[in-house]
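The protein record passed on below.

***
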Amino acid sequence: MNRTLGFQKAFALSMSYRSDKRDRLALIGAATDFDIDFRDGVVGSEVSDKALPPHWVKEDHKPSELGCWRGHTNIFQEIVHDRIESAIIFEDDASWDASLKKQMTAFAAGARWLGNETIKSHPHSPYGDNWDFLWLGACGYETREYDLRRFVMESGPAVPQPQRRFMVGGSPDVSFYPNDTRIVHTVKEAICLTGYAVSQRGARRILAGLQDTSIPIDLEMHRFCRDEGLQCVGAYPVLVGSHAPMGPVSKGSDINEGKSDDFRNEAATQNIVFDVSLNLDKILKGDPDLDSQWPEDLELYNS
């Protein structure tokens, strides 16, 4: 796996004034040995009314939802304009397992299998050439009813136990697998864009479709996968989680703000066991004994 995780580019979408989030992303990218290029988020109130999609009703949305749409759309535009074959995109609260490169190698094998491709077929991408959108950091999934294929990509302590999985939407039925199993599957619909990848083919279709939208962009992506025939693939449990730093809760999101007097006493990352953000100090010091967010779960493997 190369320094952009097998994609031509790796981007992080972040407001230019959030130097705190960019510092963390730069550090965890370095800690997991891949390169991230930052792209500026967009302040929704600065989007010209002339540039609004025809059916976007400003009164129905927060300005930050409009800015989120335009920020992601700018990246799709760049991918199309510069003929970038594939890119992985992170929102600025993203975090991941310290072994993400190893996990992405296994995920790539699953994506190729679902696309009926193998290494012997010489695809241009490690993930194969028959995909549009890879949903790596969702907060809710629904798989395609007619596609029951599942690729087991990983098992072991880096897979969060069922009670540790935070999803606000649905999730694939994995009840017939051991609890420490991660699968790759096709996606009918999903929500949240904490981490995802898009191919050139997918970016062109998405950019065209986003010219007329009236809903938040993750719900639009949900619709593209469900109704517009995009080839969408995901992993469950997810590979990219949302990181919440210690400190005022209002610092966490530039879309949804918490109360100003709320304070988070401990940092946490959803759905990631050996989280790179939480283990950053150990990694930078060369300590291989990383901490699990849920050390009590490791007793299942040590007993």
Notes: The longest helix spans residues 63-81. The chain has a mean pLDDT of 92. The radius of gyration is 19 Å.
